[in-house]
Amino acid sequence: MVRLVVIFAAVAVLLGLGSRPAAAQDFQIGVYDVTEGVATGYAYSPAYANYAVTVRGYVDGVYFAQMNATQTYPGYSAPAGAPRSTVLWRFNIPAQYRDGLAHTLTVNSEFGTGGASQVFTWVGPPGVVSGVSVVPGNASAVVSWAALSGATSYKVYTSTNGGSAWSLAAGGLAGSPATITGLTNGQQYWFSVTGVNSAGEGGPGTSATGTPVPPPPPPAAPSGVVASVVDSSLIIVSWADNSGNELGFRVERSAGGGSYALAGTTAAGAVTFSDTVSPSTSYQYRVQAFNNAGSSGYSYTGSAAVTPGAPAPPFSFANLAGAGGDELKRAITTGGLVVVSLVGLVAAVWWVMHRVRSAV
Question: From CA 247, how far away is CA 285, in angstroms rounded?
C-alpha cells in the first residue's frame, strides 16, 4: 500500500496536478471589478499550470470571506492572453458596506501575499420618503413629497383599505408633485411614495389620505339687475345674489347698442358694481356668477338703456345774467353753489333789480 501512495505522488508531481507554487510569491491576484456589492477577479501563477489557491477578501482591512479560486466561473472569463494557469474568484461584499461611502476591497492569498486592492462605492436603495401630502380633485389627486437623497426616480402607490394592500399608481416619476388620475369620487385613498435608484427601491415611508370629490356645480344666475345713473360719469349696477357657491360676478356693458364687453368683476357675495362711463351715451348691462366649475347664465338690465346726462356748466356771473332765475336755482339745488356767500347774495340782489328795471 505504501508503494502505491509513493507512485501516485510521483505521478502527480510530474503532471503538475493539484500542486501549489513553490513559494508564496510565485502567483499574483488581481481585481476585475466591484459592482453593486459583487467583487470579481483573477489569480495565476507564471510557474505552475495547475494549482489550488485560496483567495481571502477584506473591506477596509476587515476580513469577511475566503474562497477557492476556480478556472471557470459563470459569467466571467480570464482576460485575453492570460496564462493558462489563471483562475477566477467572486465575492459578495457584506451589505453593511452598501452605504454610498468609499471603501477599499483588498484580496490576497491564504499566505497573505500576491494581493491587490480597489476602492469602491456601493450605493444602496434609497431610504424612505417623507412629507407626503395629498390634495384631492375630481377623480384625481395631486400627491407631493419631500425630495429624497440618493433617489433617481419615484413611485406612487395607492390603497383603499388603510394601507393593508398597495397598488402601483405611477412609476418613473422625476420628482414631486404627481397627479394621480382614474380614481373614484367618494372613495377614500391612502397614498405612499418610494424612492428608486440603480440599487433598487426603498421602503415605504409615511402615507397620506384623501377622498376625491366631484367639483361643485356652476352657480345660479343673479336676478333683478338694475342700472342707476348717479351723475354724468357714474352708473351703479345692482342685482340679487341667488347662489351660495360663486367665486365672484362678471359685469358686462353694452355702449350705444354695441356688443357686450367686460366692465369688471366683483368678489363673492357682492351685489353692486360702480361703473365709470362717458356722458350722453346709452348703456345696458348684464351680470353672471362664476366659480371653478363654470359660469351661470346672464341676467340683463332689460331693453331700456340708461343714459347719463351732460355735466352742468360751472356757475358764473355771465351764466347768471344770461339764464336768469333758473340758472340761480340750478346752481343752488345741484350743488354748483354750496354756500350762500356774500358774493352770491350781491349777485342775487343785482339780478332782482335787473328784472324790476326790465319790467318798468
Answer: 20
Does the pLDDT of residue 37 top 90, yes or no?
A: no
What is the model's pLDDT at position 319?
Answer: 54
Tens of pLDDT, residue by residue over 128-147, are 999 999 999 999 999 999 99
Q: Write the class of the CATH domain 223-300.
A: mainly beta
Helices (H), the chain: 2-15, 317-323, 325-333, 342-359
CATH superfamily of 133-210: Immunoglobulins (2.60.40.10)
CA-based radius of gyration for the chain: 47
Which CA distances in Å does 291 have to 169, 220, 247, 263?
Answer: 30, 10, 5, 18
What grid cell was written down for 250?
A: 362678471
* 8 Å CB contact between 93 and 127: no
**Domain at 2-121: CATH code:** 2.60.40
List pLDDT tens digits, range 323-340: 455 555 555 555 444 444
Q: Which three cell numbers stand for residue 285?
A: 348691462
* DSSP designation for 26: G
